[in-house]
Amino acid sequence: MRLPLAVLLLAVTFTAAAQSTARSRPAGTLPLDEVPPPPPITQATSVDDEAVVTRRTDENGQVIEEYRVRGKLYMQKVTPRHGKTYVLMDHKADGSFTKLDNSIDGHLSVPQWVLMEF
Predict the structure, then answer these.
(1) Among residues 100, 93, 94, 48, which one has the least CA distance to residue 78?
(2) How do residues 8-19 score in pLDDT, each as one tens digit?
(3) pLDDT of residue 103
(4) CATH no. for residue 75?
(5) 63 inside domain
(6) Arithmetic mean of pLDDT over the chain
(7) What count of other Cβ atoms lies within 10 Å of the Cβ of residue 25?
(8) Which among 101, 57, 97 has a CA at the least distance from the CA of 81?
(9) How far from 60 is each of 15, 47, 54, 57, 98, CA to CA, in Å?
């Protein structure tokens, strides 16, 4: 058992020593120039990607806040003059809004980001 272990250690040692020596450059090749530093990172955000909030007051005194991304309305927050604030959300992006309230009704609001559009 000791002899195979010693042979294995010697083989590993010799291969490591063979790789650590400097190699000559093949004929007809030139060394690479220094790599320039990468360009600075800039945040490329356009005005269309930012969420726009529009606030208006109805004739009944209720305040309606409209949330838009790329010009598309996806959420409305309605604050009645007398009563509790509620939110209307467009989950399917088809123009049909559903009411969200703070009651425990088993609905889970999962973040839904658009990664690519075709």
Answers:
(1) 100
(2) 888 878 777 766
(3) 59
(4) 2.20.130.30
(5) yes
(6) 81
(7) 9
(8) 57
(9) 85, 33, 18, 8, 22
Please check whether residue 109 lies inside any domain of the structure: no
**What residues have CB less than 8 Å from 60, skipping those under 6 apart?**
80, 81
| Pair 65, 53: CB distance under 8 Å | yes
pLDDT digits (tens, 9 = 90+) for 71-97: 889 999 999 988 888 899 888 888 888
- Assessment of whether the complete model's pTM goes beyond 0.85: no
Which domain covers residue 88, as residue numbers? 49-100
Cα–Cα distances in angstroms (integers) from residue 94 to residues 36, 69, 91, in the given order: 49, 14, 8
- Sign of the alpha-carbon dihedral angle for 60, 62, 63, 65: negative
Domain count within the chain: 1
Strand, helix or coil for residue 85: coil
